[in-house]
Amino acid sequence: MMRFLLLFSRQGKLRLQKWFTPMLEREKKKIIRDMTTMVLARQPRSCNFLHWKDLKIIYKRYASLYFCLAIENQENELLALEVIHRYVELLDQYFGNVCELDIIFNFEKAYFILDEFLMGGEIQETSKQLVNRSIEASDMLQEDGNSEWYEVELFG
Questions:
Q1: From start to end of 41-133, where are the E strands?
Q2: Statement: residue 154 has pLDDT above 60
Q3: How does pLDDT run across 38-60, given as a tens digit for each residue?
């Protein structure tokens, strides 16, 4: 089972965090600080797998963002790396070559895509097409809601 997923920049700025197990806020801050310093200090050609406490840390850099996933010791590292890659593919499909600014200004959509893909630390849906359909359906509902609100405001 996955424990947490963190996205942070090369400067160590946290861009997205998803916790799959309950933790105190103080523990979360310490973990974030530990992960950013540990991953950013590694050489570019180093292995993407780390052992930290009782967890395996899998990370991958895409452009200026690091995707860091913590899994339990008995889990498969390559599957976790594939989970990260699938999430990046989903973000790419939605944003069209996703960048750090897309995550910053559309963080709610990035969380929504993650929630459609993962639930409770497990993969919920493996099909990119099904995830994209649910995202498109959500966008359509949001557009319909916005147009109704605009009509109410406009015509009172």
A1: 49-52, 55-62, 65-72, 118-119, 122-123
A2: no
A3: 999 999 889 999 999 999 999 99
- SS3 of 52, please? strand
Burial zone of 155 (CB within 10 Å; 0-12 exposed, 13-18 middle, 19+ buried): exposed
Q: How close are the terminal C-alpha atoms of the chain, in Å?
A: 51
pLDDT bin (cut points 50, 70, 90) of residue 143 is confident
- In whole angstroms, give the CA distance from residue 131 to residue 136: 9
Separation between Cα atoms, residue 94 and residue 152, nearest integer Å: 30
> Based on the number of CB atoms within 10 Å of its own CB, is 118 exposed (0-12), middle (13-18) or buried (19 or more)?
buried
Q: How many CB atoms lie within 10 A of CB 79?
A: 11
Q: Which helix (H) or strand (E) holds 17?
A: strand 14-19
Residue located via tokens 């200004």? 105
CA 95 to chain centre: 14
